[in-house]
Amino acid sequence: MKKKLLHSIFLFSFFFTLVINPSVLAQAKKIEGDTLYWNHYKSDLQHRLALKDFKQSTDDFNFRLWMQGQLIEINKRDSLFEGFLIHYTYHTKKLNNDKKEIIQTKTTLPSTQSKALYHWLQQSPLLDLPSDHEISTWRMGCGGITYEIEQASPQEYKIQTYWNPEQQDAIVEKNQLLELIHHVSNTLDLEKQYTKFKDKLPRKGCYTDGESSVSRCFISNSMNIGLKTTSQLPYGFHISYQASYLGNRKLNTSIGLDYSFDTHGFYSVYTQVAHWNVFYKKSDCFDFFVYTYQNRKLNDSNLYHTTQNHQLKYGITLKNNYSFGMGIDYLQGSHEKIGAHFYAFNYFSKLSISTIGTISVFDNDANYKLEVLKSIALKSNSLIHNLSIGAGYSNYFNYKTLSINTIISL
User: Fold this and answer.
1) Whether pLDDT at 271 is above 70
2) Which of 70, 268, 355, 399 gives the lowest tally of CB atoms within 10 Å of its CB?
3) Cβ-based neighbour number of residue 360 at 10 Å
4) Which residue from 141, 144, 133 is spatially nearest to 211, judged by alpha carbons?
5) pLDDT, tens digit (0-9, with 9 covering 90-100), for 213-223
6) pTM across the whole model
7) What's the alpha-carbon Rg for the chain, to the nearest Å?
């Protein structure tokens, strides 16, 4: 009697456990494939993407195809079909930063499309294809794209991996895999969908798919602050902000302010607004507009009434780090004048040195300014990514000035 009672309690406990936690059945699944590779490269990503665990799934059929930054999932349970297209990328604020976040989008496929892909897969020999390391004629290597396939039934969970199929010889297994990739890609228009995903990413920081060491970085927005001193006005500062993007919207604009002064009420204010990629943008050059406003009160009796001027110029920057532009310079005051304004810039990449020259010509007068800047790149994961030290000389209607400045880029 006691033996029968213990037997009944055991059966009751077993069936109660299955009702409360049906995944117990799934734990008895047969597992095939390189789980060591999977646990090292994909297990954490699978968790962070909040994907269904096929090892625990009790669905009739599960399938997932991993590609570079994309994955497709098809599930069948009874008569219900569901599918998902997921895009993902790793994002860091700066290159080589260990703090990575994952940006992802998840699109639910129409049930008719999921059903059609399910039936296509059932007729494909791919589900029975061995992994690349089990194919004697499959060449292995480093780099390139690795495709992974997960598939599961209530009794089995299988992992298949394939390194760089496009680079393999004309073997049957390669053709069967590429047939799947091309079919899914054409059905879901994967190339277009992936391009749309990348285009919507914020243009700041660095992105990688996690399977490649290659990162795509945007140093689109930067803040520059610094100190300056001149032979006539010993105190001063510089601040500017450059924004290529505002979110996903192209801005291509910068704004800057220089202010120098002394303790006797004399000063010089310099503001500038620039916009680039106005009419022309190619890999070898782009164009720009720059507006500059200057207001001065200088310790020179000849310049007391000629302290303001407006400059507007249009220019081109070439691939060889050379820029040139020209425009007008409108001088305000008791002697209003309009002159021609010219600009030139050259960056010597090997030395990280920039040279800048401007000149405005009024009748028989010429105002000019020459600057030399030395740029020092700092560590990519530091708060300050660049330091510039510069010196300049200017002649403004015979008011001659030497200047020194130090600027950091954030």
Assistant:
1) yes
2) 355
3) 24
4) 144
5) 556 777 667 89
6) 0.60
7) 33
Q: For residue 334, how many other CB atoms are within 10 A of its CB? A: 7
328 within 8 A of 312, measured Cβ to Cβ? yes
Handedness of CA 76, 77, 81, 82 (dihedral sign): negative
Closest alpha carbon to 274 in 256, 254, 293 = 254
- pLDDT of 280: 79
Report residue 303 as tokens: 């310049």
Alpha carbon 327 to its chain's center: 35
Identify the CATH number of the domain defined by range 219-409. Answer: 2.40.160.160
Question: What confidence tens digit (pLDDT) does each residue in 34-65 have?
Answer: 777 777 778 888 888 999 999 999 999 999 99
Residue with the two structure tokens 């090892």: 55
